[in-house]
From TrEMBL, chain A:
GO terms for molecular function: symporter activity. It is a multi-pass membrane protein. PROSITE patterns: NA_SOLUT_SYMP_3. GO terms for biological process: sodium ion transport. Gene3D superfamilies: Sodium/glucose cotransporter. One of its GO terms (cellular component) is plasma membrane. It comes from Brevibacillus formosus. Its main location: membrane. Belongs to the sodium:solute symporter (SSF) (TC 2.A.21) family. This is Sodium:solute symporter. It is found in: Cell membrane. It catalyses: L-proline(in) + Na(+)(in) = L-proline(out) + Na(+)(out). The chain crosses the membrane at residues 12-30, 42-68, 89-110, 122-143, 155-175, 201-218, 238-262, 282-310, 331-351, 357-377, 384-404, 410-431. Keywords: Cell membrane, Ion transport, Membrane, Sodium, Sodium transport, Symport, Transmembrane, Transmembrane helix, Transport.
Automatic annotation (TrEMBL), chain B:
One of its GO terms (molecular function) is phosphorelay sensor kinase activity. This is ATPase. Residues 152-254 form the Histidine kinase/HSP90-like ATPase domain. Residues 56-133 form the Signal transduction histidine kinase internal region domain. It comes from Brevibacillus formosus. The keyword rRNA-binding does not apply. The lineage of its organism: Bacteria, Bacillati, Bacillota, Bacilli, Bacillales. SUPFAM superfamilies: ATPase domain of HSP90 chaperone/DNA topoisomerase II/histidine kinase. GO terms for cellular component: membrane. The keyword Magnesium does not apply. It comes from the Bacteria. Keywords: Kinase, Membrane, Transferase, Transmembrane, Transmembrane helix. Signal peptide: none annotated.
Length: 442, 262
């Protein structure tokens, strides 16, 4: 894949329309998290868990579209979130933001890597290290070396396969087994899933919304997609993406219900294994496998590509402003290999569950959401303290994790950020209104 | 606990939602280009409309000096002849007339209004010609509210004087007829002037050859404005009359859509 400039590698040569925009965003957001996370949420928080997952993505993507329009109006010719932050923040704030962004991207890729390895293990019995090596190798090739053109080509195929799988498999099973049969099975083995006044489930939905907003609002791949489309198409694209995205976790939840109604289970991965065993039609099994791999790979690819873009465009270029386009592209390729290797190492070394990871990094996402919104809404340069309030949120969240449950820690983190930010904004307003501005009425 | 019916509905939602999502996505892929194309076409049409409006306004502005110079010539003739009383009346009528001229920006006005303002101009001419001038104006009652681009009748009347009646010795006759012909309005202005057609044609030729250089010529201006308003459905013709004089006929579709604000 030859690119004439680094910009072409990052955002493509031409602006994309709503159709391809939606596909690109869906490919980024239909991830290993959606496949594994939404069933896990369903099992832990009942039927509301799956709905919460759907709502989380739908609202967050739709709202991000609104914010994105403002971003594009302010800086129309950027490429990455880093470009915008460089324009809005003072140097210290900018570098702090870059560090936070790099950490969150590594987390996002780590999650996908883990999901990929687990899936390979479940499906083909491949040893996890070997499976992961194949997975990362392929991702580095198609996204890191292939660039945005290859990512979009892969995204179209992936979305077609995903929809084919999530439409055909549930229809096949529910028509075959009958809804009543499934309902009775659930009532017998897992009656807690059908409880309506499930406060914990509702709490998860609201917490999920908070994490979802944070995840989308600081996601570099989503910011990059803002710059790939025409300004007038940003809001409809993200709105439609949100609505269509919401259908995917719902479908995956229904897939898990198919497995759950027949008996108990050990853990979430064994559920997926049961699901694979239950799909007795070859074509549906192939569809499911391709859908799962496609989702994980496209999400990892989008993460890898956006991280390379950020590192080259917003870190390397600042130290080497005279670097040629060729040099930047070559560095991008080298970074792809390095990041792939790093992700491989991390995934082999750490093996938490996906929901654990979601809650662990959820603290960061939940704390970042408000500061990012305030930065975008601030006229002119945004004070660095806005970002420091997010760091205070991280500290509060991670410290409280030792004493309270993970969901509560996320709330503590976001509340701390919100309080500090509100106090700061009030003080700034009062300072401007009554102290700094001379009284002209006298 | 969720009832069986509630559970069925939820499963239905879980199954139908991706189908609807897929259809929406497919729709976007198939029709987005067409929608974009339609949007661009609409934008183009809007821009063309704006351009036409600008062109039309420009033409309307051009016609005003044409009238003004003709009328000032009339008034100058009165002054040279020391006909003070008529001169004062002429200035009075001119002032009323100009009030309309500079306020008129509508693309179409009613025939009744156009006739009223033409009559004001004719009053000035009557002062000059006195009893020598005989004017006949016939307009079908039902056509009084029909639409006409402003200054069409006036320009034709002005030209009838300028190129025909001014040079006419003896009785000057001006016959204005407005009638309906099928779905069109037919306006004819007949004068018994001596060499009107040659002058009219000369004017028309000059305008055709140098459309941008003329400023005081009205016929081409009328043609262009009629074309802008009615396309190829409107026409303007000049014909000589065997007994002497010129017949100018204008035909345009009968509509009642004038934007008559006053």
């Amino acid at each position: 894949m030859t690119y004439l400039s680094f910009r072409e590698y990052v955002v493509g040569a031409a602006k994309i329309g709503i159709g391809l925009g939606v596909v690109s965003i869906l490919a980024r957001w239909v991830t290993g998290n959606t496949i594994f996370g939404s069933p896990e949420a369903l099992v832990k928080y009942g039927i509301f868990g799956g709905i919460g997952f759907a709502l989380m993505g739908a609202f967050a993507l739709s709202m991000f579209g609104l914010l994105g329009r403002k971003v594009r109006r302010e800086l129309s010719e950027g490429m990455t979130i880093g470009d915008y932050m460089r324009d809005k923040l003072h140097p210290f704030g900018y570098w702090l933001m870059i560090i936070i962004l790099l950490i969150t991207t590594i987390e996002a890729m780590f999650v996908q890597g883990m999901a990929g390895g687990v899936l390979l293990n479940i499906l083909f019995g491949l040893p996890i290290p070997l499976g992961l090596l194949c997975f990362f190798g392929f991702c580095v090739l198609f996204a890191g070396i292939g660039g945005i053109r290859s990512i979009h080509r892969f995204a179209i195929v992936q979305i077609v396969i995903t929809f084919a799988a999530i439409i055909l498999i549930p229809v096949y099973f529910f028509v075959g087994k009958g809804v009543e049969h499934v309902y009775n099975g659930l009532r017998l083995y897992h009656p807690y899933l059908l409880v309506l006044n499930n406060n914990e489930g509702l709490f998860f939905i609201i917490t999920g919304l908070l994490i979802g907003f944070g995840q989308v609002f600081v996601d570099q791949a989503s910011w990059q997609r803002l710059y790939m489309m025409e300004e007038k198409k940003i809001v409809p694209t993200f709105l439609v993406s949100g609505l269509i995205f919401a259908t995917v976790p719902l479908a995956f939840s229904s897939l898990i219900i198919i497995v759950l109604f027949t008996g108990g289970f050990d853990d979430i991965y064994s559920l997926l294994f049961d699901l694979v065993r239950k799909i007795d039609t070859m074509i549906l099994l192939v569809l499911f496998v391709l859908c799962a791999f496609g989702a994980i790979m496209s999400a990892f690819g989008a993460g890898l590509h956006s991280m390379i873009s950020l590192m080259v465009n917003n870190v390397y270029q600042l130290f080497r402003p005279d670097a040629s386009e060729r040099q930047k592209i070559r560095l991008g390729y080298s970074l792809a290999i390095a990041i792939g290797a790093l992700s491989y190492g991390l995934t082999i070394y750490f093996q938490p569950t996906l929901l654990d990871l979601l809650f662990f990094f959820g603290i960061m996402y939940a704390s970042l959401f408000l500061p990012v919104v305030v930065i975008v809404l601030t006229k002119g340069k945004a004070p660095t303290f806005i970002l420091i309030s997010a760091v205070m949120g991280f500290v509060a969240g991670y410290s409280s994790r030792m004493y309270v449950d993970p969901m509560m820690a996320i709330w503590i983190a976001s509340l701390c950020t919100a309080l500090v930010l509100t106090a700061y904004l009030c003080m700034t307003w009062l300072w401007k209104r009554y102290i700094r501005t001379p009284d002209h009425t006298r | 606990m969720i009832s069986f019916e509630g559970f069925t509905l939820l499963i239905l939602l879980f199954i139908l939602a991706p189908i609807i999502g897929a259809i929406a996505l497919l729709f976007l892929f198939i029709f987005e280009k067409r929608i974009d194309l339609l949007e661009n076409k609409n934008l183009k049409i809007e821009l063309e409309k704006e351009l036409q409006q600008a062109l039309y306004n420009q033409l309307n502005q051009q016609i005003q000096p044409h009238f003004l110079f003709n009328t000032l010539n009339v008034i100058l003739s009165l002054a040279r002849l020391n006909r003070t009383k008529e001169l004062v009346r002429a200035l009075e009528v001119l002032s009323q007339f100009l009030k309309f001229k500079y306020k008129s920006t509508e693309p179409l006005i009613s025939l009744a209004r156009e006739i009223t303002y033409t009559e004001q101009y004719l009053e000035i001419q009557k002062l000059r010609f006195g009893d020598r001038l005989r004017i006949q104006l016939d307009c079908a009652e039902d056509l009084l509210q029909a639409s006409i681009p402003p200054f069409v009748l006036q320009t034709l009347v002005e030209n009838a004087f300028k190129h025909g009646l001014e040079r006419k010795m003896g009785e000057a006759i001006l016959d204005i007829r407005i009638s309906r012909k099928d779905d069109d309005v037919l306006l004819t202005v007949i004068d018994n002037g001596s060499s009107g057609l040659t002058a009219f044609q000369n004017e028309s030729e000059i305008e055709t050859e140098q459309p941008h250089e003329k400023s005081g010529h009205g016929l081409d201006n009328i043609r262009r404005r009629l074309h802008l308003c009615f396309g190829d459905h409107a026409q303007l013709e000049l014909a000589p009359i065997s007994e002497g004089g010129t017949l100018v006929s204008v035909k345009w579709p009968c509509t009642y859509e004038q934007i008559d604000l006053r």
